[in-house]
């Protein structure tokens, strides 16, 4: 790789990071698509970490907060975090620090979608609502709590 291409890729990474946070894995994938060498990618991302352009802790906190704002449960957050390359132990630590009440979050998600619920639901409607909350990543206990609170 010549110096001109290296500078171009460095500017590309800085441009990406200027728009939003990225995990190290995401940036690696983007640079691989631009056909950068593994050695250059490693050196560039290490440089970014030294200058605090990439911070996995900060990225993970923002990722979890974004999903909580969308009323997603722990299972969904864990699943999507694995796809983004977030370390599982870091994710667990961030979730624990934020002290999230998953039952209240499940109830909020349920109330947002089904605020005008008739008192007696048939089996088909209940199953539909359970599937909705399961897709959002909540456990059965959290789902039961949300549906009974209504």
UniProtKB/TrEMBL annotation:
Protein name, as recorded: Regulatory protein RecX
Every RecX third three-helical domain range: 99-147
UniProt keyword annotation of Cytoplasm present: yes
Domain RecX first three-helical: 10-47
Principal location: cytoplasm
PANTHER family referenced in this protein's UniProt entry, alphabetically: REGULATORY PROTEIN RECX FAMILY PROTEIN (PTHR33602)
Pfam families in alphabetical order: RecX_HTH1, RecX_HTH3
Family: Belongs to the RecX family.
Organism for this UniProt entry: Pseudoalteromonas carrageenovora IAM 12662
Purpose: Modulates RecA activity.
Lineage: Bacteria, Pseudomonadati, Pseudomonadota, Gammaproteobacteria, Alteromonadales
């Amino acid at each position: 790789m010549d110096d001109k291409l290296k500078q171009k890729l460095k500017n590309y990474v800085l441009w990406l990071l200027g728009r939003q946070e990225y995990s190290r894995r995401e940036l690696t994938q983007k640079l691989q698509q631009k056909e950068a060498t593994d050695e250059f990618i490693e050196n560039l991302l290490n440089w970014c970490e030294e200058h605090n352009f990439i911070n996995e802790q900060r990225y993970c906190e923002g990722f979890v907060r974004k999903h909580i704002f969308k009323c997603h449960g722990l299972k969904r957050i864990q699943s999507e975090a694995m796809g983004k390359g977030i370390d599982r132990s870091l994710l667990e630590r961030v979730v624990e620090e934020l002290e999230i009440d998953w039952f209240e979050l499940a109830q909020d998600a349920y109330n947002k979608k089904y605020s005008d619920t008739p008192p007696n639901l048939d089996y088909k409607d209940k199953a539909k609502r359970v599937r909705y909350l399961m897709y959002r990543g909540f456990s059965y206990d959290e789902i039961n709590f949300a549906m009974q609170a209504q």
